[in-house]
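Mods, move this if it's the wrong board.
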Amino acid sequence: MRDLQACIRILEAEGRLAKVKSKAALEYELAGTAKKMEGKEALLFERPKGFDVPVLTGLMWSRENLGVISGKSARQLPFYIAESMAAWKS
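Not the wrong board. Structure tokens:
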């Protein structure tokens, strides 16, 4: 994955992204909706009230989400992360 937009495209293509198209207030609606979805799909709030940029939450809620964006299965993911960290430390 190259960047956050690439992550969003991958999650969407794999059915791991839910979009909220209506305006959502960050203080109440965004947090409440995110809480209901915790552990499921990542959420993209396309038009948060008072902001010009979308808000993405839940990218790391589940191994499934992380696996999809890294190209690994949920089962392979911990080993992939451990190997990547070991290589990074060397």
